[in-house]
Amino acid sequence: MSIDIDTARKVAHLARIAVKEEDLPALAGELSAVLNFMEELNEVDVDGVEPMTSVTPMRLKRREDVVTEGGMPERILANAPDAREGFFAVPKVVE
User: Fold this and answer.
1) For 60-75, how does the pLDDT look when each residue is reduced to its tens digit (9 = 90+)?
2) Pairwise CA distance, residues 60 & 44, whole Å
3) Does this entry carry the keyword Cell membrane (predicted)?
4) Which of 32, 56, 76, 91 is the most buried (most CB within 10 A)?
C-alpha cells in the first residue's frame, strides 16, 4: 500500500504534529513502509500458535484480589502535578 502526500498531510493533521511541506514526501514514504511491513505480517501463518507474554516461557504474576479501605487520597494526590478539590486536574483537550 502506498501513501500519497495528501494522505500524509491528513495523518499529520489528525496526529496534531507539525510537518513542513518539504518533509511530507519522506513522511509518506515512512508511512508506506510501515503499512507494507504490516501487510507482510498478515501473511504469516499463526494458526495453532499460542499467545506469549515473553520470549521465554513464564507464568504471569498473580495476586489476590483484596478489597481494602483505601482512604489515602492525600497520599495519592501528593504525586499529582496539579490537584484540585480532591481530584487530579488535567488540561482541557476538547473545546
Assistant:
1) 788 888 888 788 888 8
2) 26
3) no
4) 32
Contact between 19 and 9 under an 8 Å Cβ cutoff? The reply is: yes
d(CA 40, CA 15): 25
d(CA 48, CA 29): 35
CA-based torsion, 18, 21, 23, 28: positive or negative: positive
Q: Give me the residue spans of the domains in the chain.
A: 5-42
Instruction: Please choose, from the candidates 7, 50, 46, the residue with its C-alpha nearest in 3D space to the C-alpha of residue 27.
Output: 7
Instruction: State pTM to two decimals.
Output: 0.51
CA gap 77, 72 in Å, rounded: 9
Q: Are 54 and 48 in contact (CB under 8 A)?
A: no
